[in-house]
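Pasting as-is:
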Amino acid sequence: MEQNLLFGGVTGVEIRPFRSQLLKWVGNKQRFAHEIVSYFPSDIGTYFEPFLGSGAVLGTLQAPRAVGGDRFTPLMEIWKALKAQPERWDAVRAATKEQVFERVKGSYNARPNGADLLFICRACYGGVVRFRKADGFISTPCGIHSPMPPSKFNERVDEWHKRTRGAAFVCADFQEVMREAKAGDLVYCDPPYTDSQSILYGAQSFGVKRLFRVIDDCKRRGVRVALSIDGTKKSGDKLCDVPIPDYLFAREVYVNCGRSMLKRFQMGGRALTREVVHDRLLLTY
């Protein structure tokens, strides 16, 4: 792989940080989305994000033409509602927070839907939504934090509605979404990470080798692709082993993601001084 090359004429995007996350989601890129965007070319036709998740990069970029996709139906219900008619979320009073959380979680597990998922991802412990592999039920407990007041969250929804006005949202597999990209477009992929997300949504059946084949097809069509994937953990002591094809990417950079959100959940608040994570950002251009 040709690593750490100069851009050679590719002009990147200069953009200010945007830290007001809409959804709490494991792997959320909100704090450093502006750094990822800084490696994007400035002449993007249409921006595609086929593993939408929290939409942090899409919301930071504010592309005039964009497509956000994910195969997880309840998640895409949230994004489609944001586009068509922004949802309003009612905060839960601290005195009844746990009871209401369990009621909403039970409602979701009985019939998965976007409204319940929106509440759960904002109110669950550490923002880490876990799904049981056996039946798909959410198993995350209630968080210890106080819910955001409705007025503040409404302001956030309004801001995200404006930032994503140029985007279309589709519920589809990543391959279907990326198939629509044309020469001059940019695809940013942020798939489930193979090293750490086996208990999280979508990771059980995701195959990185299939993604590499689809990226190769995009590259042959003149579509530029940026991919966030496992990098280093344990503050650099562990390099995650991912079978990256040598021919596929032109550049590799590392993005400091801070301390692991998932480890914070697993270690119950213990010190995380040795748990700094760096993602790889791989670029085909």
